[in-house]
Specification:
Number of domains of chain B: 1
CATH architecture of the largest domain in chain A: Orthogonal Bundle
Strand order of the largest sheet of chain B: 6-7-8-3-9-10
Shape of chain B: globular
Helix content of chain A: 55-70%
CATH class of chain B: Alpha Beta
CATH topology of the largest domain in chain A: ABC transporter involved in vitamin B12 uptake, BtuC
Mean pLDDT of chain A: 85
Low-confidence stretches of chain B: 1-14
Number of strands of chain B: 10
Largest sheet of chain A: 2 strands, antiparallel
CATH architecture of chain B: 3-Layer(aba) Sandwich
Distance between the termini of chain B: 43 Å
Number of helices of chain A: 26
Oligomer: heterodimer
Mean pLDDT of chain B: 89
Distance between the termini of chain A: 67 Å
Structural class of chain B: alpha/beta
Number of helices of chain B: 9
Shape of chain A: globular
Largest interface: A-B, 19 and 32 residues
CATH class of the largest domain in chain A: Mainly Alpha
Number of domains of chain A: 2
Strand order of the largest sheet of chain A: 1-2
Number of strands of chain A: 8
Largest sheet of chain B: 6 strands, mixed
Strand content of chain A: under 5%
Radius of gyration of chain A: 25 Å
Low-confidence stretches of chain A: 304-319, 664-674
Chain lengths: 674, 255
């Protein structure tokens, strides 16, 4: 009972923090139907700003800056206001121009905003933790309930703050004029404008309030756990999003309930399950996956809120941007359209160039980098199947990659070599068996996960896949017997063909190139088949596709499974090429990076993923020569984020949209009404 | 900036030349490369009912959406009550006195009838008078009075149309723009709604009407514009217009 009571108290504190962040997600989703992934980072900013304002001095950009040293309440208020303003600015720059753009565009910018904010926070405050200063309430004696449950005064403050903030918000939405305008804008933006509601300002207000809530949650979290760190917002943000979906996204009481449930389940799970603390991060995602099976609209959500998804997910040009910019794009489009028309010859041309480069480049170092380009290009191609061709955001693709890498590594190293003493070169052929086998295994996972989610519209797949990616990562870290845990698996043999080791960087490059040919060819064949036409139809307009008799759920599942297959397939080679894998290789950040590469190179094109990978990985290397980058390596990711936001705002259809495989025949394009 | 705005609103047949309430010249809207409306000129005098008629795709709804600022103009000028409102944001036009009752009603389905009406007065600063206005409107639409706390989405189509009109009137507009107010309604309900249009003029509000039922619209109106393929092809007073000619325009014959 004592133990249970203590866990319950811990769960309530955690639940209060999740609930506050979930409110941010749910409020903005309710008004503009956008999952703003950046709330995790606004949470982090709230923590950093509060901590900084409370300290007498802080190191910013590596130099000591005097700070006011406010008491917690004043610092908190300041942090909430500043974060609210940042939220409004983010909306103005990254989301408002995309209000009428395809749905995928603002989702991608919100991820890019996350990356930018996180990288900037690391640049400003450094990579180390910033300790949360003592506050006098925290030094008081804890309150003891039933002689055994200890609750610090600050724990009570956290819970009380959450309750007051959420009740206040509910009242505000129900009673105030602005709250009413928010509800009206959520229902019908056009009608809201017609009654005289300044919708843009109402949306900005929703962002300000949401960001303030995220900041509040972040500073309470920092206070409870004693630190602020640039990556601290990631996992709580994800959990809060899960809580919001759990409670029914768009519903404020739902967010409160979802947060509370998640906090309690996590605290109790950590306390009672065997080895629970290690697994607690997976619990919430298992809960999410289970819930989406049974009650997709969430506990208190209305089903219609989540069925939005009309219109092309990718198409449409942006009117933003100066004339000269549009002119440059127009010229590029013409060039790309010609390239796309050339199609096969262009692909062979590029392959020839790659072969020549592979033969000519003298340095092993650069050959390794080029091999990485090809690997990332292949992985991005796999992601491109689901994102670029079927128009669905997948944030758990990295899990398929992990499945492939772990399958082959476990078989070769942990089972055959360590278990039975079989030397890898005796079973060299197993690699070639593992390639399709891992692909099938990953595709199997995709079917398992995709079956419940893909029947739904909207952003469920993105959220579900996010959960899946995390589950796989947590399993990889914690199931020591299977995966060797965080130590990873060493000594994975290099690829081998009939006893000839292909370990040299040049051989590996050509091996990768051969696989890339297989991947691109297979994807191209599929996309040009009736399956691919169904994908493109779904991407362009899901409702129209359905009305034309395309069984959309089934074809979305095919796309997800195909993407999973490619992930598993490439994952096998990745493991053999790196010869060492650990859970760190398969973080969500890798997934975001792959997504960015696809967007950079061109969503829905065959070669775009490779172009994106080439640009990025080569830039990553070359930029290392700059002294500024040497001091702040993370700024390269901030730059990538900025490039993507600019790309999405000025050209939401991606750089290479005119080379994209469309529904129309080449000749029909001229007649197409813009 | 305010020019001479005639304060004497109603009623029809003004003998002396009246300053028009709305003057639209050369209005053009493009969807991509296609011009949906091209060089439309309209004049609406205060206290009148003016109709736009024409077959599907003639550009009637596009014209109305451009007037309330929902669509950007490719060219043209909109002068309302003596002021140029061409570039004004839609929510600000409501404050100037233009209310738009959109096609398919678009009431806030999840909110109560009362909340819908209160939202209709969003642009007004006089919170005190809102309750009185709601009362006045319920005498125009008694059924709404009985449904005050019901969610708007649970009303019948005709009731929702009344709510949409009442919501528009809550902003105390000088000009009420109505887009297809009888669409999808039962015959009795159509008569009721069209009677209301006359009522609204009597209260002193000018009406710009798009109505699918051209014959009824002509009967109601003081002035009629006939549109075809994005242009105004004919105009006349309600009494003077020849229904046979209108029919010919519908059929695509240039009479």
């Amino acid at each position: 009972m004592d133990y249970f009571g203590q866990l319950l108290a811990n769960g309530l504190v955690l639940g209060a923090i999740y609930a506050l962040t979930a409110v941010a997600f749910t409020l903005v989703y309710g008004v503009v139907r956008l999952v703003n992934f950046a709330f995790g980072e606004l949470f982090m900013l709230g923590a950093f700003l509060t901590t900084s304002l409370m300290l007498p001095e802080v190191r910013l950009f590596g130099t000591v800056v005097p700070m006011p040293g406010f008491p917690l309440p004043i610092a908190a208020l300041g942090a909430i206001v500043i974060t609210g303003v940042i939220g409004v600015v983010v909306d103005r720059i990254a989301y408002r121009p995309l209000r009428n753009a395809p749905r995928l565009a603002p989702l991608i910018t919100s991820i890019a905003v996350s990356v930018v904010l996180q990288s900037l926070a690391q640049t400003i405050w450094g990579a180390e933790e910033l300790r949360f200063p003592q506050f006098y309430l925290a030094t008081l004696e804890p309150v003891v309930l039933f002689d055994s449950i200890y609750l610090s005064v600050m724990d009570l403050v956290v819970m009380a703050t959450a309750v007051v903030a959420m009740l206040g918000l509910s009242l505000f939405i129900a009673r105030s004029s602005l709250g009413r305008a928010m509800r009206a804008s959520a229902e019908d933006q056009t009608a809201a404008m017609l009654v005289g509601i300044p919708v843009n300002r109402v949306v900005a207000a929703a962002f300000a309030i949401g960001s303030g809530f995220a900041a509040l949650a972040g500073l309470l979290y920092a206070q409870t756990y004693g630190f602020a760190h640039s990556s601290m917002g990631f996992l709580p943000g994800l959990k809060a999003l899960t809580a919001a979906v759990l409670g029914g996204i768009g519903s404020v009481p739902g967010a409160a309930l979802g947060g509370l449930i998640l906090g309690l389940v996590e605290a109790l799970g950590a306390g009672y399950l065997p080895n629970g603390t290690a697994w607690k991060d997976a619990i919430s995602f298992v809960l999410l996956v289970g819930l989406l099976y049974m009650r997709p609209q969430g506990l208190l959500g209305r089903p219609e809120l989540n069925s939005a998804g009309r219109g092309s997910l990718l198409g449409g040009a942006s009117a933003a941007g100066a004339g000269w910019l549009q002119a440059i794009f127009a010229r590029g489009d013409a060039l790309l359209a010609r390239g796309a028309a050339a199609g096969t010859p262009a692909a062979f041309g590029l392959l020839a160039v790659a072969v020549i480069v592979g033969l000519m480049v003298p340095s092993d170092y650069w050959l390794r980098i080029l091999t990485m380009v090809v690997i990332y290009g292949m992985l991005a191609s796999g992601l491109n199947v689901i994102v670029g061709f079927a128009g669905l955001l997948d944030l758990g693709f990295v899990a398929f990659w992990a499945v492939g890498s772990y399958l082959t590594s476990i078989l070769f190293v942990l089972v055959l070599k360590d278990g039975y003493g079989v030397a890898p070169q005796e079973v060299w052929w197993l690699l070639y068996l593992n390639l399709p086998l891992a692909g099938l295994l990953a595709a199997g996972f995709a079917v398992l996960l995709g079956t419940p989610t893909l029947k739904l519209r909207g952003d469920y797949l993105a959220i579900m896949t996010l959960g899946f990616g995390e589950i796989v990562r947590v399993v990889a870290i914690n199931w020591m017997d299977l995966t060797n845990g965080p130590m990873g698996i060493r000594g994975i043999p290099a690829p081998n063909l009939f006893g000839i080791a292909l370990g040299s960087p040049r051989a590996q490059f050509f091996f990768a190139l051969a696989l890339a040919v297989v991947v691109v060819f297979a994807v191209a064949r599929l996309v040009r088949s009736y399956v691919g036409r169904a994908w493109v139809a779904i991407r362009e307009d899901e409702e129209a596709a359905e009305a034309m008799g395309v069984p959309t759920a089934r074809y979305k599942l095919y796309a997800y499974a195909t993407s999973g297959f490619v992930g598993g397939f490439v994952g096998v080679f990745y493991a053999h090429s790196q010869q060492y894998i650990s859970p760190l290789n398969f973080s969500l950040f890798e997934n975001i990076l792959l997504l960015m590469l696809v967007v950079l190179g061109g969503l829905g094109t065959f070669l775009g993923p490779f172009v994106g990978a080439l640009i990025w990985i080569v830039f990553l290397q070359l930029a290392l020569d700059l002294p500024f980058v040497q001091a702040y390596p993370e700024t390269r990711f901030a730059l990538l984020g900025v490039v993507l936001i600019v790309l999405m705002v000025f050209r939401p259809q991606g750089l290479a949209a005119s080379a994209r495989v469309g529904l129309t025949m080449p000749g029909a394009r001229a007649k197409e009404a813009a | 900036m305010a020019e001479i705005v005639p304060i004497i609103h109603p009623t029809a047949h003004a003998e002396r030349p009246v300053e028009p309430l709305l003057k639209v010249s050369g209005l053009s809207v493009a969807y991509g490369r296609i011009r949906a409306i091209d060089g439309v000129d309209l004049t609406v005098e205060p206290g009148r009912i003016v109709s736009l008629v024409g077959s599907n795709g003639a550009g009637k709804t596009t014209t109305l959406m451009a007037l309330s600022g929902l669509l950007p103009l490719a060219a043209g000028k909109i002068v309302f009550a003596g002021e140029d409102i061409t570039g004004l944001a839609p929510e600000l036009r409501v404050g100037r006195g233009i209310a738009h009752v959109p096609e398919r009603r678009r009431v806030f389905a999840g909110m109560s009838v009362r909340e819908n009406l209160v939202l209709g007065a969003y642009s007004r600063g006089d919170a005190m008078e809102i309750a009185g206005d709601i009362e006045r409107l319920t005498s125009l639409f008694p059924i709404l009075g009985k449904r005050m706390n019901q969610a708007a989405g649970t009303l019948s189509g005709g009731e929702q149309q009344m709510l949409a009109i009442a919501r528009g009137l809550m902003s105390r507009p000088q000009l009420l723009i109505m887009d297809e107010p009888t669409m999808g309604l039962a015959p009795q309900m159509i008569d009721l709604i069209l009677d209301t249009v006359l009522e609204i003029r009597k209260l002193g509000t000018t009406v710009l009407l798009v109505e699918q039922n051209a014959i009824e619209a002509i009967r109601l109106s003081d002035h009629v514009y006939v549109m075809r393929l994005g242009r105004v092809v004919h105009e006349d007073s309600g009494a003077g217009i020849d229904p046979e000619r209108v029919k010919a325009f519908y059929m695509g014959v240039d009479a």
